[in-house]
Every structure is written in structure tokens, then in C-alpha cells.
Amino acid sequence: MRPFRPEPVIETPRLRLRAPRRSDAARIATLCSDFEVARTTARLPHPYALADAEAFLASGDGLDPAREARFALEHPAEGLVGFLSFFDEPAPATEIGYWLGRPYWGAGLMTEAVTAALAWAARDWGRTYVRAWRLDENPASDAVLVKAGFLYTGERRQTFVTSRGEALPSRGQIWLA
Ligand SMILES: CC(C)(COP(=O)(O)OP(=O)(O)OC[C@H]1O[C@@H](n2cnc3c(N)ncnc32)[C@H](O)[C@@H]1OP(=O)(O)O)[C@@H](O)C(=O)NCCC(=O)NCCS
């Protein structure tokens, strides 16, 4: 049996960041099946089926909570509106990734979620820095990262984008606690 560990909950003015549940699968599939959500992420496939959401949620069972953390973004009126993950690829660096359902874009929600998640990562998770990679063609994510306090590292790489089956130019950013 796995040892009991309390799952972190992060409250922001408009959102609750909580552990994902198997029952989130249908909602995740609905929001992620929008190509506009998938096309600027590295990992989301397209098309995105219920089975993809179920497999993603099942993969969370084996995560080491010292190395990775996943949060569903819950809105009191709308339910699950997006997702935010910390993962260690390549270890030991911690990288952040996120997506928000398209109906919720442009209201500052992801900036709010990322800012609060970084504070949690520094205060409760012992991280002194967090990395991010975002596509050159993703100015909205750049704005989120810059507003949350990320700096440009000067690193550039080609990132493989699963939904488009191609590698596209991206830049590295870093947040220092
Ligand atoms: C990136 C994403 C999470 C942003 O979420 P959001 O809640 O809309 O972000 P916010 O409202 O907090 O901030 C977005 C900022 O980008 C700006 N922005 C949006 N589109 C832009 C564009 N085409 N050019 C320049 N800036 C843009 C907004 O004006 C806003 O900045 P402001 O508050 O200074 O005006 C959302 O668009 C998304 O989920 N996209 C698909 C998935 C994705 O790309 N994930 C990130 C992978 S690195």
C-alpha cells in the first residue's frame, strides 16, 4: 500500500488548484479536443479522445510526489477549466506546463494559477527554480510566464509538437524563487 500523503490544494482569488481525479476525464477530453488548445503544447495529441484523458489520469498513480505535481484548475462556477503540471524532464530540473480551456482564455486565469503554483513550489515543495519551454508562436504563454516572473535564459531548441507531428522553434525561460 502506498503511504498516505496529503494532496496539496492551492487557493487563488478565482481558482482552486487540486489533485486530479478519475472523474475529471470527460471534462479534460472536452476541453483538450479543441485543436487550438493542443497546437501550442508539446504533449497533447490531436484528436484527443476520452481514452487519452483516462490514460493521462491513470499515469498519475505512479508519480513520485517529490518529483512531479499535477493540479486540476477548478473554477467555482465552471468546474474544471484547465490543468497545470510540474515535471522533471530532464531531472533534476523542474519544468512547468499548463493549458486552459478556450472559453476561459484572456481573463488572467492562467497568470493567477501559475503565480500561486510557483509560490507553493518554493514554499512547500522546496524548489529554488522552475523552468519553462514555450513555442516562439505562443505569445499568450510568453505573457503568462513574464507576468509570473520568468526570465529568458537565451536557450533555443526545436520542440516536438505531438498534435502537429513536427518540431517547432521554442525558447527557454526560468523562474528563480
Ligand atoms: C497560454 C494560455 C494558458 C494563456 O491562458 P490565459 O488565462 O488566457 O492567460 P492570461 O489571461 O493570464 O494572460 C494571457 C496574456 O497573453 C496576452 N496575449 C494573448 N494572446 C496574445 C497574442 N496573440 N499576442 C500577444 N499577447 C497575447 C494577453 O493579452 C494576456 O496578457 P495581458 O494580461 O498582459 O493582457 C492559454 O492561451 C492556453 O491554454 N493556450 C493553449 C495551451 C498552451 O499554449 N499552453 C502553454 C504551453 S507552453
How are the secondary structure elements laid out?
Layout: E1 10-11, E2 16-18, H1 25-32, H2 35-38, H3 50-59, E3 69-75, E4 79-87, E5 95-100, H4 109-123, E6 129-135, H5 139-147, E7 151-161, E8 166-176
Antiparallel strand pairs: 1-2, 2-3, 3-4, 4-5, 6-8, 7-8
Helix pairs in contact: 1-3, 4-5
The structure holds coenzyme A.
Coenzyme A binds at residues 37, 40-41, 98-100, 105-111, 134, 138-141, 143-144.
General description of the model:
This protein has 177 residues and is an alpha+beta fold. It has one domain: Gcn5-related N-acetyltransferase (GNAT) (Aminopeptidase), CATH 3.40.630. It is 26% helix and 32% strand. It has five helices and eight strands. It has helices at residues 25-32, 35-38, 50-59, 109-123, 139-147; strands at 10-11, 16-18, 69-75, 79-87, 95-100, 129-135, 151-161, 166-176. The strands form two sheets. A five-stranded antiparallel sheet has the order 1-2-3-4-5, with helices on both faces. It has a three-stranded antiparallel sheet with strand order 6-8-7, with helices on one face. Helix 4 (109-123) crosses helix 5. The longest helix has 15 residues, at 109-123. The protein starts with 9 loop residues before the first strand and ends with a strand. The mean pLDDT is 95. The structure holds coenzyme A. Coenzyme A binds next to strand 5, helix 4 and helix 5. Coenzyme A binds at residues 37, 40-41, 98-100, 105-111, 134, 138-141, 143-144.
